[in-house]
Amino acid sequence: MKRKLNNEEMAAFCSQMALILRSGISAFEGISMMMEDQEKTAAGTMLKEIYSEMEQGGNLYQGIVKTGLFPAYTCQMVRLGEVSGRLDQVMGELADYYGQEEMLGQTVRRAVAYPLFMLLMMLGVLFVLMVKVMPVFQSVYRSLGTDMEGPAGAVLAAGEAMGNYSLLFAVLFAAVLLLFLWMFGTDRGKNLSLSWFQRGKGGLNRQISRYRLASGLAMCLRSGLDPERSMELMEGLTRDEQTSRQIGLCMEKIRQGVFFEEAVIEAGLFEKTHNRMIRVGQRTGSLDRVMEQIGQQCREQASDQIWHRISMIEPTVVIILAVLVGVILLSVMLPLMSIMSEIG
After folding, report:
1. Share of the chain above pLDDT 70, in %
2. Which residue, 138, 177, 143, 140, is CA-closest to 160?
3. How far is Cα 12 from Cα 97, in angstroms, rounded to an integer?
């Protein structure tokens, strides 16, 4: 199974095509130029496949479909751009859309990486404390003619057990490190981390789905599509089950003859403040600009929620680490102080 192009690759391809088309160069000649520049790369192989299809009389839509590397949504937008004669505009809109998707993905990946890094650091500190520091205190206790008992003794025993299996822990640490690199260094891992961070039915996942829906609608409307056809293309664009059901409900109402803005409002796709904006946009003929504004607002709200999560995770991890270290040290120091006072 072929790997789909990621957001960064999609943004690069679409932006190059938009620039070429706006310069008055045909899509066929543009693909040829791009192919020459990237002849010995993976992108070059993809471009050769597109070029071969177009050379045989196909268009850009047929070429990108043949590769199997482009999302269905992108293929449909390219097809509509070619039919309407607005391919340059469509490619520019797609470039902006995937550029924003990449920025959002980077924000989410940083938000996932940060708590994982903090957790690894916390476990590392505890490991060193239990394996290296606690035996030092044990030697002090023995020099005073006693042994560590109670909670301190339990921590020491756990540390000794960890020390005896240090190779196993090293392997586990290496495995976690490799998993960490896979999650943030490969497309599949990035998608998994994004899905993990967006899990749940509300909050962040909802805002991201609204952002994608509004941005996608704005792009379709600016490309010359009517609102009803634009909404049809949004099916499958979001990962949120609730939003997907609401899009289906909206489409059903539109087929029943309900006006677009009323169908969107009745389906509950956006917040009340956004609904008022949609009504005004539909009546004034500026629905594309309204959807763009809604998309920007939802993206900003999603970003705020992401950083809010980070701001909560950092002090929580620090507090947990401080409490654990404090409890361990107190379990060692209090009996030791008692022994020293008796000797004194």
Report:
1. 91
2. 138
3. 11
CB 334 within 8 A of CB 148: no
Task: For 75-95, give one letter per residue: b (16+ CB within 10 A) or e.
Answer: bbbbbbbbeeebbbbbbbbbb
Question: Could you give the C-alpha distances from 316 to 96, 110, 330, in angstroms and in order?
Answer: 37, 18, 21
Is residue 242 within a helix (H) or strand (E), and if so which, with residue range? helix 241-255
Q: Is 287 in contact with 281 (CB distance < 8 Å)?
A: yes
* Residue 179, phi then psi, degrees to nearest 5: -65, -40
Q: By C-alpha distance, which of 274, 277, 276, 252 is closest to 263? A: 252
Segment 86-128, tens digit of pLDDT? 889 889 888 988 888 888 778 777 777 777 777 788 888 888 8
Residue 202, pLDDT > 60, answer no
Tell me, what DSSP letter sits at residue 132? I
Q: Which amino acid makes up residue 70?
A: F
pLDDT at 294: 92
Place of tokens 């690199």: 181
What are the two backbone dihedrals, phi and then psi, of residue 69, each rounded to the nearest 5 degrees? Answer: -100, -10
Q: How large is the average pLDDT for residues 25-42?
A: 84
Between 202 and 332, whose confidence is greater?
332
Q: What is the mean pLDDT of residues 55-78?
A: 88
Could you state, in order of their start, the residue ranges of all structural domains in the chain?
7-70
Alpha carbon distance 64, 83 (integer Å): 15
Is the pLDDT confidence value at 224 over 80?
no
Q: With residue 128 as reference, give the H or E element that holds it.
A: helix 87-128
Distance of alpha carbon 210 from alpha carbon 163, whole angstroms: 51
Count of residues making up the chain: 344
Between 134-143 and 287-343, two packed helices, what is the crossing angle to 10 degrees? 10
